[in-house]
Amino acid sequence: MRKLFSFFYNKDKDYTKIASVNKKVINEYNEIMLSVLTLICGSLMILPVVVAPFSTTKLEAIPLYLIISFIFFVIFFLFKLSFMKKYVLIGLYFGFSVLFLFAMYLSIIHTPHMRATILLGVFSIMPLGFIDRPRRMRLFLLFWFVLHTFLAFNFKPDFALDDTINSLCFSIFGCIFGHIMLWARLDGYEVRRLLIVEKETDVLTGIYSRRKMLEVLSSLEKDEGEKPSGFMMIDIDNFKKFNDKFGHAHGDKCLVYLGEVFLMFSKKYRMDFYRYGGEEFVAIAYGYDKNELLSIANELRLAVQNKEINDQKITISIGVTNIEKEDVKDYMNLIDLADKAVYNAKNSGRNKVCVESN
């Protein structure tokens, strides 16, 4: 019993951390599940209406079936609207609340002389139905279990104990298997995320890799996403001499430090940094004109030169090119222009910023 409690408790503590970095895919999954839930339930509610002429027990419940079907279809179409997607969890809890209310109506009011059946299915399906905080899902299930048990003992005492035991068994079944399935999905999302991070991130500096940069440029050339306003080519001054003198371990320290500075600037400005190769880096900027790009580049240059490794001051040369037109067909040409600018910066004494106009 202690192991089972520990299994639930420890996993609950890890949920927030893992879910926060996989929020997008979790939301996408929940959107799919809400669509499936509402569409299937809305359609299935029509079936009893079709067979009602052949069943005396269904006739009096026809209005309810139609109302429930209508509610599910409204939820289905409502959450297809883009501004409603951020409320998808509310939609799921509301949808399952409608299901619980409907099942409890059948159990308590419509057929009080029979044991609950549909309700058992809802108790077992709900924990499997979507991804949310496990503790909140269990509390939601507990609320409906307690409510139905209370109503059953008051309005159908002959079958209340049977319904309570059956509901409890199916709730426990749903919670355990729902918990296992939830973490199977989360673990899968986390593995996929780490693989993407490994593919897109330079291990040493922590910034994006060249492969990621090429993917971004390719998508920009296909008219996907916001267009950049400029590029920077950044080169560490005298890095080869530094490596030869102090060794690659100290050279790596220099690269790690630059990565930290780049990450800081990417948070401060609308810029993404990529390791282009060796001691060369590329920055893609968004929403800045030529003068603003030069100002940011100089701020970056000054931020780097404050660091000393092995009593050697680290400096960088930066080449800047701004984009004066939106219909760019080949962004690599702009990177070549920035490369020419950084070459001019090095020739003019290093630790400088030069611009090459597009």
Write the topology of this structure:
Elements: H1 2-21, H2 23-44, H3 46-51, H4 56-59, H5 62-78, H6 88-110, H7 118-125, H8 134-155, H9 157-200, H10 210-221, E1 230-236, H11 239-246, H12 248-268, E2 271-277, E3 280-285, H13 290-304, E4 308-309, E5 312-313, E6 316-322, H14 331-347, E7 353-355
Parallel strand pairs: 6-7
Antiparallel strand pairs: 1-3, 1-6, 2-3, 4-5
Helix pairs in contact: 1-9, 2-5, 2-6, 5-6, 6-7, 6-8, 7-9, 8-9, 11-12
Binned strand content? 5-15%
Order of secondary-structure elements: HHHHHHHHHHEHHEEHEEEHE
Number of helices: 14
Uncertain ranges: none
Overall geometric form: elongated
Query: What's the end-to-end separation, in Å?
Result: 69 Å
Mean pLDDT, to the nearest integer, reads 88
Q: Give the domain tally.
A: 2
Largest sheet: 5 strands, mixed
Instruction: Please state the CA-atom Rg, rounded to the nearest Å.
Output: 30 Å
**Based on helices, strands and strand pairing, what is the structural class?**
alpha+beta
Helicity range? 55-70%
Query: Quick one: how many beta strands?
Result: 7
Strand order of the largest sheet: 2-3-1-6-7
Describe the structure.
This protein has two domains: 2-199, no CATH class; 210-355, Reverse transcriptase/Diguanylate cyclase domain (Alpha-Beta Plaits, 2-Layer Sandwich). It has 14 helices and seven strands. By secondary structure, it is an alpha+beta fold. It is 67% helix and 9% strand. It is elongated and about 95 Å long. The strands form two sheets. A five-stranded mixed sheet has the order 2-3-1-6-7, sandwiched between helices. The termini are far apart. 30% of the residues are buried.
